[in-house]
């Protein structure tokens, strides 16, 4: 029997005393098998290069929609036309559970090739632990769609859901690359809709002034505390600690803020910035591809404040053996500076403002100064204009000039 396999067919088909099959009229090899019990499964039939004819069960109708099963069949048939063997790949995929793949080969690859590999592993575990018992080929669009719905009902932002699914998709892409999967099981999965033009958080002039004042007050307090501590140590015969009054900055926080405000670096880019990437003579810094989110190297010019900040910081941290611009106490990159940052915001009476929002503040000020969006995109390191467009509303004069031309034409 031949018919188009779709929802209408599934709704009206009746089981028989014996199993039977319906062959799709649109995709050769795509088949629906119906059992006497009423259970129905999608099957793909194909012939290998040696002439052997075989078939592979895609899954049951309760797991795949006709459209999803058709797409899966189309990819399998395409892989067969290129010399692949779906049966062999499926057997191999069965040997790997998601848990085993993450804790084994894939986890090792992440840690070896990504600076935040362990962070990605932790995020995969936190988000997809309910799938850990499933084999790689059992992770279907259907179960991930249900996971998306649950996350959405829990109040998780669509952008966060998309970021988590991107991590899962990357894992499965690597499984395809390594031959553990013949096709990508989530290739047809669509991302959650995200409003990329939502209002971004940046500092008002008054908030920026309060932030700078709070940072300076913190610097003053650190110096006063250090002077008091040294007086206490001298009275007891201890050696003085470094006199902070001789330094331009009391610690790392103030220069980190000033550099971020004036360059728009991501937090991770700032934490991993090294002195060889800072050209004080040419007033430029380089964000290396391995430290950038996009994986591409970019160059950011330093304005007067950023340049003078880095020059002063370099002078007081002149140890050439330390490559990091902002090393933590153990000489390694910071993981976070949340405690000191939140305390600073509290003193400045600034609410709902993350460290990442300093990047938005940088871009917003550029947009309000009339800088074109493509230049802002290049400075931020966005791969395309999609993310940069969120700042377009801050430069309304361009749209005003555009509609004003209608009056001139009249």
Brief write-up:
The protein has 410 residues and is of the alpha+beta class. The chain folds into 3 domains: 2-83, 2-Layer Sandwich (Double Stranded RNA Binding Domain); 94-177; 205-400, hpI Integrase, Chain A, CATH 1.10.443. Helices cover 49% and strands 9% of the residues.
Write up what this structure looks like.
- The protein has 410 residues and is α+β, with helices and mostly antiparallel strands.
- The protein folds into three domains: 2-83, Integrase, DNA-binding domain (Double Stranded RNA Binding Domain, 2-Layer Sandwich), CATH 3.30.160; 94-177; 205-400, hpI Integrase, Chain A, CATH 1.10.443.10.
- It is 49% helix and 9% strand.
- The protein is built from 17 helices and eight strands.
- It has a five-stranded mixed beta sheet, covered by helices on one side. Strands 6-7-8 form a three-stranded antiparallel beta sheet, with no helix packed on it.
- The longest helix is centred in the middle third of the chain and has 31 residues, at 205-235.
- It is elongated, with a radius of gyration of 29 Å.
- The protein starts with a strand and ends with a helix.
């Amino acid at each position: 029997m031949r018919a188009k396999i779709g929802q209408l067919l599934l709704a009206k088909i009746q089981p028989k005393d014996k199993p039977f099959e319906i062959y799709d009229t649109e995709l050769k090899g795509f088949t629906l098998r119906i059992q006497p019990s009423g259970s129905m499964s999608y099957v793909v039939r194909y012939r290998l290069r040696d002439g052997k004819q075989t078939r592979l069960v895609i899954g049951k109708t309760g797991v795949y929609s006709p459209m999803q099963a058709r797409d899966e069949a189309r990819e399998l048939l395409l892989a067969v036309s290129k010399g692949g063997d779906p049966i062999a790949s499926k057997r191999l995929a069965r040997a790997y559970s998601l848990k085993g793949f993450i804790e084994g080969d894939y986890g090792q690859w992440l840690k070896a090739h990504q600076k935040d590999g362990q962070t990605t592993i932790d995020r995969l575990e936190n988000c997809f632990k309910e799938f850990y018992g499933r084999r790689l080929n059992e992770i279907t669009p259907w179960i991930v769609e249900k996971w998306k719905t649950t996350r959405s009902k829990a109040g998780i932002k669509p952008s966060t859901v998309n970021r988590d699914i991107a991590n899962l998709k990357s894992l499965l892409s690597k499984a395809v690359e390594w031959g553990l999967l013949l096709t990508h099981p989530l290739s047809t999965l669509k991302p959650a809709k995200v409003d990329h033009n939502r209002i971004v958080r940046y500092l008002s002039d008054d908030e920026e002034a309060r932030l700078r004042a709070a940072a300076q007050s913190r610097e003053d307090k650190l110096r006063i505390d250090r002077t008091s501590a040294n007086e206490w140590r001298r009275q007891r015969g201890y050696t003085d600690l470094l006199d902070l009054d001789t330094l331009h900055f009391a610690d790392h926080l103030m220069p980190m803020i000033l550099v971020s405000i004036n360059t728009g670096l991501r937090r991770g880019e700032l934490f991993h910035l090294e002195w060889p990437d800072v050209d004080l003579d040419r007033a430029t810094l380089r964000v290396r591809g391995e430290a950038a989110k996009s994986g591409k190297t970019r160059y950011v010019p330093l304005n007067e404040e950023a340049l003078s900040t880095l020059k002063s910081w370099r002078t007081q941290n002149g140890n050439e053996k330390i490559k990091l611009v902002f090393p933590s106490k153990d000489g390694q990159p910071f993981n976070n500076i949340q405690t000191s940052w939140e305390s600073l915001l509290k003193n400045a009476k600034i609410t709902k403002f993350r460290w990442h929002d300093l990047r938005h503040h940088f871009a917003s000020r550029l947009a309000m100064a009339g800088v074109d969006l493509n230049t802002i995109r290049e400075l931020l390191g966005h791969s395309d204009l999609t993310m940069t467009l969120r700042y377009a509303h801050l430069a309304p004069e361009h749209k005003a000039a555009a509609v004003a031309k209608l009056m001139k034409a009249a």
